[in-house]
């Protein structure tokens, strides 16, 4: 099974920013500075310091494929770095709203 590419994960984040797909925060425990979210079956662990989204630590697609920060960095990119400034701001806004709603 092929690993997820940064572009595949970026597309999920982009769709969430455009509010085409629903971004939900998961109640699962994660490391400090990380938040776990789901975008219609895609499970992402994001490095989020409460204000700024830094990168996507890992992702699992509905079909079971996975991708991780270390493998994406080998190719010089991360799904978060592919977001436009506006898309990044939208995701950060959604994450902040979800954080206060929990």
What do you see in this structure?
- The structure is a single chain.
- The chain has 102 residues and is α+β, with helices and mostly antiparallel strands.
- The protein contains 3 helices and 5 strands; from the N terminus they run H-E-E-E-E-E-H-H.
- Strands 1-2-3-4-5 form a 5-stranded antiparallel sheet.
- Strand 4 (53-60) and strand 5 form a beta hairpin.
- The longest helix is centred in the last third of the chain and has 17 residues, at 85-101.
Number of helices: 3
Question: Strand portion, in percent?
Answer: 25-35%
Mean pLDDT: 90
Which sheet architecture does the biggest sheet show? 5 strands, antiparallel
How many domains in all? 1
Choose one word for the global shape. globular
Q: Summarize the helix and strand pattern as letters.
A: HEEEEEHH
Kindly state the percentage of residues in helix: 25-40%
Which secondary-structure class do the elements indicate? Answer: alpha+beta
Number of strands: 5
Distance between the termini: 35 Å
Sequence stretches where pLDDT stays below 50 over 5 or more residues: none
- Spatial sequence of strands, sheet with the most strands: 1-2-3-4-5
Radius of gyration: 12 Å
């Amino acid at each position: 099974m092929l690993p997820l590419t940064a572009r595949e994960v970026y597309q999920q984040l982009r769709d969430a920013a455009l509010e085409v797909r629903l971004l939900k925060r998961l109640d699962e425990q994660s490391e400090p500075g990380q938040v776990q979210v789901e975008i219609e079956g895609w499970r992402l662990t994001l490095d989020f310091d409460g204000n700024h989204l830094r990168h996507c630590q890992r992702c699992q697609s509905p079909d079971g494929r996975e991708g991780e920060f270390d493998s994406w960095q080998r190719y010089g990119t991360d799904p978060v770095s592919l977001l436009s400034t506006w898309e990044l701001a939208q995701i950060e806004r959604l994450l902040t709203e979800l954080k206060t709603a929990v």
